[in-house]
Design a protein that fits this description.
Layout (H helix, E strand, L loop, with lengths): L6 H10 L8 H7 L4 H19 L13 E15 L6 E8 L3 H11 L5 H12 L3 E8 L9 E5 L2 E5 L2 E5 L2 E5 L10 E14 L2 E12 L5 E11 L12 E13 L3 E13 L2 E3 L1 E22 L9 E8 L4 E11 L2 E9 L4 E9 L1
Antiparallel strand pairs: 1-8, 1-18, 2-3, 3-4, 4-7, 5-6, 8-9, 9-10, 10-11, 11-12, 12-14, 13-14, 14-15, 14-16, 16-17, 17-18
Helix pairs in contact: 4-5
Length: 353
């Protein structure tokens, strides 16, 4: 079976374009080896790329300045956000808690006792403590074989009335580069646009709600507006211009939710008729956020799983986009590239009615 791109890409690509690769639990199992602070640093590149993708591909021209016109487009847009070398590793200070298996490994390495049952008690004692440590290694997009290193400063552990000390040593979590050097994060979504009323066009992205097994119900909806103010300007403008607003929400059960919003200004100019080309450019202010929640079982008999949850904002705040679309009869092809903290590209295929 092919390895999943990640928990997030499995959800989106699996539902959007049905790639059907890997297991959804793979990333969750990886994250159970990390604390909340380390998990946030670990997944940060994917969180930012996810938001950058969602805010991509909405625009491929400015709407015409018509009082009323029938402009309908139905198609799909594919996006990809690029990763650089700086996104492949992290180094952070934060809280860390050993699970039972990790704690037993530390106790065994320290050779505290030759009695397995006593070592289990020492391990339990260690797993109940939380430490402030430095954690470094590959992010989710790092090399597969690279380890994450926890700079453990040592601790006292107990077994009954006996107390012993585990000395300072690095704790190594092997093979943590989940996406093994992935260079770009892909995404795809259906898109529907309709206009034009007083220079305004509406665009939608949506999929029907689907139950994804134990993950919960998947839901996705986005919409936005583009308005050409030339409707109310008495002097003809040399290009079509538009102001835009787009927003969307994607949710999977109680474990994953993301929102993205974009405000932008765009300009385009169409050359030709029937077969035509439309260069366009724009500047947008954007934001995105992701809420993640998952359970960690620390391996202690009789104990309930610990809920780990966090919210993160995407790093992209502004973007400059350039691109072009080509109209061939009833088919419109578009491509663009956006410069931002995380650069992204998109390709659109739309049928015009």
């Amino acid at each position: 079976m092919k390895r999943a791109y990640s928990f997030f890409t499995m959800i989106i690509l699996g539902v959007f374009i049905f790639t059907g690769v890997g297991k959804s639990q793979d990333l969750q199992e990886t994250l159970t080896n990390l604390s909340n602070d380390a998990a946030q640093a670990y997944v940060s590149p994917v969180i930012s790329a996810f938001g950058a993708n969602l805010n991509s591909g909405w625009v491929h021209k400015s709407p015409s300045s018509k009082v009323f016109g029938i402009d309908i487009e139905v198609g799909i847009v594919a996006m990809a956000t690029m990763f650089g070398d700086k996104n492949s590793s992290f180094n952070t200070n934060g809280k860390f808690k050993f699970n039972q298996a990790q704690a037993l490994e530390m106790v065994t390495k320290a050779n505290l006792s030759s009695d397995a049952s006593i070592n289990e008690q020492f391990a339990y004692s260690l797993s109940q403590q939380e430490f402030t440590v430095n954690i470094s290694g590959p992010t989710i997009v790092g090399k597969k074989d690279d380890p994450i290193i926890v700079d453990f400063k040592g601790a006292d552990v107990k077994a009954g009335s006996t107390t012993k000390h585990i000395g300072a040593q690095p704790y190594i979590i092997p093979k943590m580069g989940f996406l093994d050097g992935m260079k770009a994060f892909p995404l795809a979504a259906p898109q529907f646009s309709i206009g034009t009323v007083y220079g305004t066009m509406a665009t939608f992205r949506f999929l029907p709600s689907v139950k994804l097994g134990d993950l919960g119900k998947f839901s996705y909806f986005g919409f936005g507006l583009q308005h050409n103010p030339a409707m109310f300007i008495p002097v003809p403008l040399p290009v079509d211009v538009s102001a835009s607003f787009f927003t969307q929400t994607l949710k999977v059960g109680e474990i994953f939710k993301t929102t993205a919003t974009s405000f932008g200004i765009y300009a385009s100019k169409t050359f030709g008729w029937g077969i035509s080309i439309t260069p366009f450019a724009g500047f947008a202010v954007e934001s995105s956020s992701v809420d993640v929640a998952y359970d960690v079982n620390y391996g202690v008999a009789g104990s309930a799983p610990t809920k780990i949850s966090f919210s993160m904002d995407g790093e992209n705040k502004t973007r400059l986009t350039v691109g072009a679309s080509i109209k061939l009869a009833l088919l419109n092809l578009s491509v663009d590239y956006s410069l931002a903290k995380y650069n992204s590209a998109s390709f659109g295929l739309n049928f015009i009615f």
